[in-house]
Specification:
about 110 residues
Length: about 110
């Protein structure tokens, strides 16, 4: 048997093994089906579960203090043209009156236009 199994898509471990119809990673515990490719782009959702995409318009649902400043982003502030990024703050945007900053998706709600 010279079959080589693909590395884990979650942690890139080479120690994957097959269990019934699934492939399993012993290092991180991730399970996936053989032959399927995982999305390279993670699904980012807002505070109520709507899927966010690049270019969406969102509103802030909570007063947010701006780190390193005395400014505050107020509830209801509308932010247009968001950009989704990897990391803790998964939204890059330009907030009117404050400028460029990163937001967490749990503090915004998608606006249906």
């Amino acid at each position: 048997m010279t079959e080589t199994l693909p590395p884990c898509p979650a942690c890139s471990s080479t120690y994957t093994y097959q269990m019934d119809a699934l492939l399993v990673c012993p290092e991180c515990g991730h399970e996936w089906q053989a032959g399927t490719t995982e999305d390279s782009e993670p699904e980012i959702r807002d505070s109520v579960g709507n899927i966010l995409r690049d270019g969406d318009t969102v509103t802030v649902i909570k007063d947010l203090k701006v780190k390193g400043s005395s400014s505050t982003v107020k509830v209801g502030t509308k932010v247009r043209g968001i950009r989704l990024v990897e990391g803790d703050h998964d939204i890059d945007c330009k907030i009117p009156g404050i400028g460029q900053m990163g937001l967490k998706s749990q503090f915004v709600k998608k606006v249906s236009e």
